[in-house]
Amino acid sequence: MKRDYPHLCEPITINRTVFRHRMVSAPLGATDITPVGSPGPRTQGFYEARAKGGAASVTVSELVVHPATDGSQMLKLSLETPGQLAAFTYVADAIKRHGAVPSIELSHSGQYAGTYMVDKEKKKTLGQFGPSEGVRPDGLPVIPLDKDQIAQIVAAYANAATLAKRCGFGMVMVHAGHSWLLNQFLSPYFNRRTDEYGGSLENRMRITREVLMAVREAVGPYFPLELRISGSEFLEGGYDLAEGVRIAQGLEELVDIIHVSAGSYQFGFTITHPSMFKPHGLNVPLAAEIKKHVKVPVATVGALSDPAQMEGIVAQGEADIVVIGRALLADPEIPNKVMANRGEDVVKCLRCFVCMAERPVTQTRRCAVNPLIGRESEGLEVPVAGAKKNVLVVGGGIAGMKAATTAALRGHRVTLCEKSAELGGILKTEKAIPFKYDMYLLGQTYARMCDQMGVDIRLNTPVDAAWVDDFAPDALIVAPGSRPLKPPIAGIDRANALSVNELYLEGIKSGNEVVILGGGLTGCECALHLTLEGSTCHLVEMRSELAPDANIRHRPILLAELEAAGVDVLLNTTGKEVVADGLIVADEKGDERLILGDTVVYAVGQLSCSEEVDTLRDGAPWVRVIGDALRPANITTAIYEGYHAGLDI
Ligand SMILES: Cc1cc2nc3c(=O)[nH]c(=O)nc-3n(C[C@H](O)[C@H](O)[C@H](O)COP(=O)(O)O)c2cc1C
After folding, report:
1. What would you measure as the largest C-alpha separation in the chain, in angstroms?
2. Cα(518) to centroid of ligand 1, in Å?
């Protein structure tokens, strides 16, 4: 068979271990961790699904090697806790049996101990250890490690590697990036020591060298050892790419793969986990530069999900291996799809940070586009239905399409009616916004899937109760979505006022100076987009904060983008009247003034299409209302409800 992505699909042998192709699963922290730090059954299922999806290796993360100085809540591997080896061995087995190399990330958070801890009070009592005395951004003091502690930590890496190998892991990764402990030592920003562990680069690399030598000693010469670094810290006072190259050169003799990530947690996650405002594959130049200076294979990571782009990276020799993180949360089957020339079917990661936002809140994982995330152990297969039913789905938004494809997969005969001329629902509005284009593509991907799965798609087909009666479905899924809420203020029907949905769906030009009424997530993203397109934007919000509906990881990044773009933000300000030349607003005291603008765009929320829902409630013996039609929410909810509706028929 001729592969569409021949370079990406080519096997690579590293230190006598064959990796079946170049796509590997990035370290992605588990959430089901027992009180003693072992992987729980859901964690095993989580990693196994990525192996079954075809990844060449799956990295279990992140194993805290020295709990005495790193009181995080991650996995811990120790002989002192009976039963632990078994749990890790089962995880390694579960990865191996699908043809992937099981790897495990050895880690120490250093002064970032407890970063993901939900229990903020407990976090304060951990004692955060780093290279030098200091204060973390959250105000917690950092205790400098003494040399005895450093020696214990080095020994602990070796001990964990020995145990990991015994459990059946076929590779280990040492994490020295992202401001974790070894990176803190490498970094002139964090490391201000004056002993042999600080000062010159040679000294700053010392602990990492000691760790790598100890790990090598523990695992033996013919065992792949991967080193994860930040190619550049992108941090004022930290190291840059030129020094990143020297770090890679200084350590390459001790490792088999240099894995080049980027950034530091010191100022948030936008570089370590590239946000939707960054280009895809933005770290590739770092890996490409490092690759020019080292002999060992180099891996790249960061916002990679497009098979063609990944193929180009390997084909052009920018990196030997492509590491995929969030995109494998969104679609664990990417490697299988790439191998099978089904690149078009990849369900792309939206980089919305739902995956990272959920853990500090509920200790679970969610993914906007993958309803099974974190509970893979319950089963991944969509069971074929016992009896084939005649299913009608009303509404071709993402909820309706997810329901339709799931029901079709189960073998039902599915008809999908959409009143407009195109599938995609509210996701069609994202087409114009470059940083949300992947959301638009999600709609397109599902539209294609509906077609491929034989769903009878009827566009321009509004349905009412009589139509449904006539059709007589066995099961009816009602997903007509939502419509924009029109704020009840004077002048809102003027020609210069429109909803954010109209702006995007109808491609109406907004003018040079725009007033946006509503500073929730949608209003903020609209203001940012129009500003980046060259308009002057005034963002009016009656509450005292912007985007409270954005998740806790996306929100700070969005707010920073708004500030950098120079959006004029008016908080505690209420829209009163749309007039010919803008919006009259009132401040907290009730004082009114005119905000000038050619156009007033309102983004004050969505209303469920409840009249349509009410007329269809009795349309079939089995009826389920899903998505925005039930309650305006988000993609995560729409996909989750669509999937389960399809499964329940
Ligand atoms: C949910 C989640 C958990 C992660 N856990 C870890 C981890 O435990 N260790 C680590 O080194 N990186 C971790 N990362 C970072 C990823 O390995 C990767 O570097 C980052 O997500 C950027 O790659 P991507 O754009 O392909 O997602 C995590 C990322 C996510 C989204």
Report:
1. 83
2. 33
Cα of 542 to ligand 1 centre, how many Å? 36
Angle at 205 between CA 200 and CA 209, to 5 degrees: 145
Same fold, 12-378 and 390-484+608-648: no
CB atoms within 10 A of CB 447: 22
Round to whole Å and give the CA distance between 288 and 322. Answer: 12
Cα 364 to Cα 565: distance, rounded to the nearest angstrom: 34
**Annotated domain spans of the chain:** 12-378, 390-484+608-648, 497-604
Q: Is the CB of 356 under 6 A from ligand 1?
A: yes
Least Cα distance to 234 among 207, 209, 265, 208 occurs for 265
Categorize the per-residue pLDDT at 73 as very low, low, confident or very high, splitting at 50, 70 and 90.
Answer: low
Nearest CA to ligand 1 atom 26: 325
Angle at which helices 206-219 and 241-251 cross, to 10° = 40
- The answer to whether the CB of 374 is under 6 A from ligand 1 is no
- AA letter at 2: K
Average pLDDT, rounded, for the chain? 95
Domain 12-378: state its class.
alpha beta
Assess contact for 583 and 517: CB atoms under 8 A.
yes
**Entry field: residues in the chain:** 649
The rounded distance, in Å, linking the Cα atoms of 23 and 310 is 9
Please tell me whether residue 472 adopts helix, strand or coil conformation: coil
Q: How far does the centroid of ligand 1 lie from the alpha carbon of residue 25, in Å?
A: 10
Place of tokens 């695992």: 219
pLDDT range class, residue 112, cuts 50, 70, 90: confident
The model's pLDDT over 217-245, given as tens digits with 9 standing for 90+, comes to: 999 999 999 999 999 999 999 999 999 99
The superfamily CATH assigns to domain 497-604 is FAD/NAD(P)-binding domain (3.50.50.60)
What pLDDT does 431 receive? Answer: 92
Distances (CA, A) of 289 to 247, 286, 326: 13, 5, 24
**CA separation, residue 626 to residues 76, 257, 634 (Å):** 41, 47, 12
Measured between alpha carbons, how far is residue 273 from residues 26, 261, 299, 440 in Å?
A: 11, 9, 16, 21
The pLDDT value recorded for residue 118 is 65
**Is the CB–ligand 1 distance for residue 331 below 6 Å?**
no
What is the residue whose two structure tokens read 């509706």? Answer: 645
Atom of ligand 1 nearest to the CA of 178: 11
Mean pLDDT, range 614-638, rounded to an integer:
97
Atom of ligand 1 lying closest to residue 328 CA: 26
pTM over 0.90: yes
CATH class of 390-484+608-648: alpha beta
- Helical H segments across 30-128, by residue range: 41-52, 84-96, 120-124
Cα→Cα distances 489→48, 492, 576, 602, Å: 54, 6, 6, 11
Beta carbons of 209 and 160 less than 8 angstroms apart:
no
